[in-house]
Automatic annotation (TrEMBL):
InterPro entries: Glyas_Bleomycin-R_OHBP_Dase, Glyoxalase_6, VOC_core. Gene3D superfamilies: 2,3-Dihydroxybiphenyl 1,2-Dioxygenase, domain 1 (3.10.180.10). This is Glyoxalase. Residues 5-120 form the VOC domain. It comes from Actinoplanes ianthinogenes.
Length: 131
């Protein structure tokens, strides 16, 4: 296989543009010009990365996600990124940070979809003995 076979990762949403706008802040992806409240697409700035597609559905989220994204902060630290995501509308669901600086934070986007924030690449490189 010569390219990534995954074209989009699709997420159900009550308000597709609202949730897509939040995820644009998380990922640095761009909101496609033709996005609507029913269908919003985030296009990646990275070659061969899948887009994120948000499709409006009438029902709200009621159970834990069976699939979620693990996010590595593109700059700064995990804790700074958690603060940025909280300011953008996310909430902390479960905090798995450890006293030694390892661990992650499980968060929820504005509609309750879970995602995890891990340590940044720079944080892991500074302490290669820790995952």
């Amino acid at each position: 296989m010569t390219s990534n076979p995954i074209r989009h990762i699709t997420v159900d949403a009550r308000d597709a543009v609202k949730v897509a706008t939040f995820w644009a802040a998380v990922t640095g992806y761009d909101l496609h010009d033709e996005s609507t409240a029913e269908e919003a697409l985030l296009t990646p700035p990275y070659p061969d990365a899948p887009g994120l597609l948000f499709i409006a559905v009438p029902e709200g989220k009621t159970v834990k996600n069976r699939l979620h994204l693990d996010v590595q902060p593109p700059a700064g630290t995990r804790d700074e990124f958690v603060e940025q995501m909280t300011a953008a509308g996310a909430t902390i669901f479960e905090d798995h940070r450890k006293p030694d600086g390892t661990g992650w934070v499980t968060m929820r986007d504005p509609e309750g979809n879970e995602f995890c924030v891990e340590r940044s690449a720079a944080e892991r490189a500074a302490d290669p003995a820790q995952p």
